[in-house]
Amino acid sequence: MKVLQDFSVFIETARQASITQAANTLAITPAAVSATIKRLEAQFGCALFIRSTRSIRLTPEGQLMLEKCQQAVTAIESGVESVKRDPNQITGHLRLAMPSDLGRNIIIPLLDEFMEVHPELILSIELCDNVVDLYTRPLDASLRYGTPPDSTMVALPISPDNDRIACASPDYLAKYGTPTHPSELVNHNCINFITLVKYHTKWRFTKQGEMCEVIATGNRFANDGDAVRRWMISGKGIGYKSRIDSIPDIENGSLVPLFEDWQGDAIPLNLVVTDKRQLTPALYLLRDFLRERLSR
Fold first, then answer.
1. The pTM is what?
2. Same domain, 146 and 168
3. What are the Cα distances from residue 172, in Å, to 146, 176, 205, 237?
C-alpha cells in the first residue's frame, strides 16, 4: 500500500531527524527517502521539514501531519490485523430473530455456549412466531422453520430433516386415553397454533405412502409456540409441534409422543439471510455450531 509506505517513511524520518539514518533503518536509499518526503510535501501543499546541512526538523505543519499520519498508520495496521485474524475468533454485533419456543427453550442456552467460545461477540435476539421481515428489520439473519417464501433469500440448513410431532402430557393421556391413530384426534382437545393470517388446524401425517389429514379442534389457540407448549405440559390437550422443540420435554417425561410410526409435516430449520453477501464468518460458525448441537 503506497500511502502506508510513504507515511511510514515520513514517520521514521521525523523520529530519526535524519534522512540518512531513516534510510538505514528502512533499508532504502537516502534518495528514496528524500523523494518520498518531497512527494508528501507536494500532496499536502506545505513543507514538512526545515532542512540544514547537518539535520532536519519538523515544521509546525509537519508536526501536525506527523500526528495524523501516526494515527492513520495505526488504524490501517489494526484493520489489516483484524482481517488476518483467526477466522474462528469473531467479533462484532450479531442480530438474530427466531421462533419463541425454539428460542427460549432450545437456542438461547446454545447461544450462551457459543458466546463462551466467542466472548467478544455481541448478541441481540428477537423472539417472534410471525415471519420477521428481514428487509425492513435491523437483523442479520433469522432462524426459520420451513422453506422461505421468497426464493431470493439464502437458507443455510440447520436441521433439514425436522418434522412436526403430536404430543400430550402423561396426565392428559391418563385422563382422556391415548389415541393410536391420527384419525382419533377428532375425539380429543387439540391445542392449535395461529399466526397473523392463519389458523394452523390441518394436522397431516404420512406412513408408507398413506396420508391422514385431520382438522384439529379444541378450546385453546395461541400465536406463541411456548404458550402452546405450556398448555400441553399442563395437561390441557394434544399439540402438534416441531420435533426439535419437543425432544427435551419428551426426554424428561413431560410429554409423550404419539403415532410414532407416522411422520408429521416436514418443517426444516434454516438460518435465513436476504443475500449471500450477508453471510459473515460469525453466521457460518453459528450455522456449524447449531447443526452439530441439534443433531445430537
1. 0.68
2. no
3. 29, 6, 21, 7
